[in-house]
Design goal:
The protein is mainly β. It is about 10% helix and about 45% strand. The strands form two sheets. Strands 5, 6, 7, 8, 9, 10, 11, 12 and 13 form a nine-stranded mixed sheet that branches. The longest helix is centred in the first third of the chain and has 11 residues. It is globular and about 50 Å long. The C terminus is likely disordered.
Length: about 260
Amino acid sequence: MDFLLECIGFPPGQDSDELIERVRIQGEPVPWRGDPENHKRLEIGPGLELRLDREPGQDFWTLLPHCQVPHRLRVAAERIDYVPDSPFDALLVGWACPPAPDAPDLSQTDGAPGAYRLCTWLSDARRLPRRLRPGHVLAVSIAGFAIEVDAIVPNAQLSDPTHLERRRGAWIAPLGRDDEPGGCAEVSVRVKEIRRVKNRLTGNTVQVVIADAPERPLVLFLSPWQLERDGLEQPRPGWRIEGTFFFTGRITGGLPRVQTRRSFG
């Protein structure tokens, strides 16, 4: 997962063992993650963190980027996949921006139960009940980290007829095959705004891409080293980004007070 760390300002070849030791010593416990000695967070910039985890019985650490996103996105849960060896993580698959319960019809979403399908890892899955009614709406705070960016071009340059729907707005399609990693999706979005923060450990500037999407913007991070290697343009407002992103975040609302009888997993 070292390539994901490039998205938050760590260059290729960064010594992972050194980073792990730094977070282990300087980091603070992560709420809802279990043993504080095995679950640490280290802030490296405004809203940016390194997350370090080691599950019971494991002899290795997992180091991943994390962003404290202020936006609360409504997601109607289609299913929740729990992780057998980690009670603190779960994969949420559902529909973003579902119609309000009192909406007269579904015309604004062409009859779909939401604006677009979404998948994301939840790092505080311990807060979820083991039983959740299908369609229950959670509020989540998520960010996407680029696994691979395929194109950064002016919106009008996507002339392929298969991309007509993408030019109209956000297009997101979760990867669904068994051999594909969970929490990943193909993404095509217009850039709304670019913010810049500094990685305090490396001094490198991190581009925070605010992408236009229904109801709430999506926050994305790209590897500048991948863009340079592949000869891609830098993102800019009004242009479109297409690629595969890994989504992760936390629950920010909508947890039921009473567990229901129906379950899915």
